[in-house]
Design a protein that fits this description.
heterodimer; A: 309 residues; alpha/beta; Rossmann fold; 2 domains; 5-stranded parallel β-sheet; 4-stranded parallel β-sheet; 12 helices; 9 strands; globular; B: 161 residues; alpha+beta; Alpha-Beta Plaits; SH3 type barrels; 5-stranded antiparallel β-sheet; 4-stranded antiparallel β-sheet; 3 helices; elongated
Chain lengths: 309, 161
């Protein structure tokens, strides 16, 4: 069991054990008391937030986390805001930013970009999403939310629904779940099925998901449903997208017919979750987004080995 | 009945490389992999499905005045994991090594995922893979986790040579 991740990187769930993930979740709970009032343990420390792709929750919650710890952030929120726009390589951008900050979080459209950053830089690198490959800090807050809401993760039946092919959140989450004693059900349109290499990897790790083609049937047995956005840009024509998107709609009636499982969503949502469910006790996606702050505070605090944790 | 000893009539080379114990039927792939054209000056001997005490049948490739690099040896191991590389100087075997499939492969072929960081122009990074299975070959990109099978790897090696 580690007592610190000082100086390490957080770029993938693959190299993290259940114990390590639980350790950060325990630390996150301890951070809850600082999420509104703040602390000064990161005073004088700077975080670089390099977002080459749009982000609301990940970027803002990392910034909030660093500021609540008493530190500060510098960075940009689009490719247009950086010299990459002028043709500078990612590698040169990273090596430059390393001169200014103590820790870096990056979102980039190329898969493996965070791994490259971790190899190039001596400071801790956090992956804020690399293409459709990984989103490990989203997984931390997803697991934290499940644990906070249901008491524990072991013994639960979890349905992942929606785009399981290009969604980095479900890719990272399903990998993390191999460390827990869960039943996993997958539900997606045929063209958005989970990739075979990931299915193989999960199976090798002892987690054999059940694929179900009917959304309602896949939710019937679930303790919790993790829905993702159907991405319009993945479809060759709009009519095909509409057909699939209309079939993927979770509303109050559907949740009630399925005995009201806990409903999570990494957000943003488009049409897949009807706003009429927002007030239900079992829909927790805004709490989930809020959990990004204590979880990321705990992670930053560990990677920087801050005192007063 | 006295069985007549059958000998392979293959010319000895003075200097160069003998790649022996190639998986039967794979010599032409190795030939292509090494970028050999057949119209170079150096003498090349290819033997396909000849008898072998060790393997039953084997292929063999002798190339005059050409010495195999470590990278080429790793490439050959991907196609023919039991091949041996004999370096010949002045008609003598200077060294003899079984090709070894390394646990990691770097800069030999590209990741099949076009969106992998290793396929982005001008970024100073070469594709790197961990070998997850040796036979049949399966490799995983160390950057984007994409799995590639033997067919994808060899196709690319031969296309790219």
């Amino acid at each position: 069991m580690p007592d610190t991740f000082a100086g390490q990187d957080f770029t993938t769930i693959r190299d993290k054990s259940r114990e390590e993930l639980e350790y950060i979740m325990d630390e996150a709970r301890g951070m809850e008391k600082y999420t509104k009032v703040g602390t000064d343990s990161a005073s004088g420390r700077l975080m670089g937030t390099l977002f080459f792709e749009p982000s609301t929750r990940t970027r803002l919650s990392f910034q909030a986390a660093m500021k609540r710890l008493g530190g500060d952030t510098i960075g940009f929120s689009s490719k247009e805001g950086s010299s990459v726009k002028k043709g500078e390589t990612l590698a040169d951008t990273l090596r430059t930013v390393e001169q200014y900050v103590d820790i870096l979080v990056m979102r980039h459209p190329s898969e493996g970009s965070a791994k490259l950053a971790s190899e190039l830089l001596d400071i801790p690198v956090i992956n804020g999403g690399d293409g459709s490959a990984n989103h490990p800090t989203q997984t931390l807050l997803d697991l934290y939310t499940i644990r906070e809401e249901l008491g524990e993760i072991d013994g639960k039946t979890i349905t992942l629904a929606g785009d399981l092919r290009y969604s980095r959140t479900t890719r990272s989450l399903s990998r993390a779940l191999t460390g827990f004693d869960v039943e996993l059900i997958l539900n997606s349109p045929e063209q958005l099925r989970m990739k075979d290499d990931l299915l193989l990897e999960l199976e090798e790790e002892g987690l054999k998901p059940e694929e179900m083609s009917d959304l309602e049937a896949s939710m019937q047995k679930a303790d919790l449903v993790y829905a993702t956005r159907i991405q319009k840009e993945r479809f060759p024509d709009v009519s095909e997208y509409r057909k699939v998107a209309n079939a993927y709609r979770i509303d109050r009636e559907l949740l009630e017919r399925c005995n009201n499982p806990l409903l999570l969503h990494p957000l943003p949502r488009v049409n897949e979750i009807d706003p009429d469910v927002d007030e239900l006790d079992n829909t927790v996606f805004f709490d989930q987004a809020g959990n990004g702050v204590p979880v990321r505070m705990a992670l930053i605090s560990n990677l920087l080995n801050l005192s007063d944790r | 009945m006295v069985q007549e000893k059958q000998e392979m009539k293959i010319t000895r080379i003075e200097n160069g490389t003998v790649i022996d114990h190639i998986t039967p039927g794979s010599a032409l792939k190795v030939f292509e992999l090494l970028g050999l054209e057949g119209d170079d000056e150096n003498a090349i001997t290819i033997a396909i499905r000849v008898n072998s005490d060790k393997m039953g049948k084997k292929d063999l490739l002798k190339i005059e005045d050409r010495f195999i690099t470590a990278k080429e040896s790793a490439m050959i191991s991907l196609i023919s994991p039991e091949a041996t590389i004999n370096i010949i100087r002045s008609f003598e075997v200077e060294s003899k090594e079984v090709v070894e499939l390394p646990e990691e492969l770097e800069g030999i072929f590209s990741c099949s995922n076009p969106n992998c960081i290793t396929n982005q122009e001008r970024e100073p990074v070469e594709a790197r893979f961990e070998v997850t299975e040796k036979n049949p070959l399966s490799v995983r990109c160390l950057y984007c986790d994409t799995l590639m099978n033997e067919e994808e790897v060899t196709h690319q090696l031969i296309q790219g040579s």
